[in-house]
Amino acid sequence: MDSTRIALGSIVVGIDGSDASHEALAWAHEQALLEGRGLSLLHALAPLSGGVRASLISAGIDPVTLRVQTRQDARHLLEAARAVVADRSPDVDVATSLVELDAREALVDVSHDASLVVVGSRGLGPLLSLVMGSVSLSVAQRAACPVLVHRPHDGIRRGILVGVDGSPRSMPALEFAFRQASLRGEPLTVTHCFWDVAAQDAGLSEIRRVLAEMTGAMREKFPDVDWQVRLEHGLADVCLAQESDVADLVVIGRTHPRRHLPFLAPGVATAVLEHARSNVALVPDVG
Q: Which residues form the UspA domain (predicted)?
């Protein structure tokens, strides 16, 4: 239980006891059933810094005793989460992992062996970005595998939306979106956003041709998917965030952590993550 080693290809979900992590677990559990994969539940205990230890001691609290109790509470938390999955789906292979590491580093570490990492949009940690938890944001930007950031849905949502830029780097995100649409029986919208109005006459016919080629391979691989291509005039982050109002899942690509060139621009992925009102999956391009 004290290692970040997980079963190769499993779906990892971060567990911290928050409502967001419970909802993320439910989504990850459903995904594990759909894909026939194992589920790995991970809880990370950040190491106590020297300053924190000194503060505890000055307050009359023994850091060692506190750490023992914290570990015990964390194990109970993981076992309770495992029991929830086992009660609903006894056949799903569920493993738990408790590590003494910053949650961001732990989840990025396991992403090299996972097929998917699932996190809630907000947790119980003290660090938050303007809108979403810093753990979710950091992991989504740095993980080696796709990361799904789960958000509670208001009202009825349906459909999957994937943003593509027309380059080969879009293919992993496009395939991920087609696969999810096939697994979940959801319609898929492939969206390309453009800003240069002056170039639209010459450029749009070319992007239609490129998108037709890209989707052609996916149509053969996932013939059951009901899909459409949509060209939108506007900034990519604004268009995708607006369309997330009705979608169940928005899929976007991002630069693989081993690459240093921007894909859809780092700010686009971050903006969609922070402003979309649906689940968001970030899929790394080929490293």
A: 10-149, 159-284
CA distance 237 to 264: 9
Q: According to DSSP H, which parts of the chain are helical?
A: 19-35, 50-58, 63-88, 103-110, 134-142, 171-184, 200-221, 236-243, 266-275
In a shared domain, residues 144 and 177: no
Number of domains in the chain: 2
Give the end of a domain, one of 97, 119, 150. 150
Does this model's pTM top 0.70? My answer is: yes
State the Cα–Cα distance between residues 249 and 157, nearest whole angstrom. 9
| 2 domain residue, yes or no | no
Greater pLDDT, 154 or 158:
158
The pLDDT of residue 154 is 67
Question: Each residue of 95-131: pLDDT tens digit?
Answer: 999 999 999 999 999 999 999 999 998 643 433 333 3
55-72: buried (b, 16+ CB within 10 Å) or exposed (e) per residue? Answer: ebeeeeeeeeeebeeebe
In this structure, the answer to whether residues 166 and 144 fall within a common structural domain is no
Please report whether residue 3 resides in a domain: no
Alpha-carbon span 166 to 164, nearest angstrom: 6
Query: For 245-284, what is each residue's pLDDT tens digit?
Result: 889 999 999 876 555 443 445 578 888 888 888 999 999 9
* DSSP class per residue in 44-93: E-PPPPHHHHHHHHHTT--HHHHHHHHHHHHHHHHHHHHHHHHHH-TTS-
Same domain, 44 and 71: yes
Q: What is the pLDDT of residue 158?
A: 85
238 closest CA partner among 265, 262, 257: 265
Looking at 85, 118, 150, the residue that finishes a domain is 150
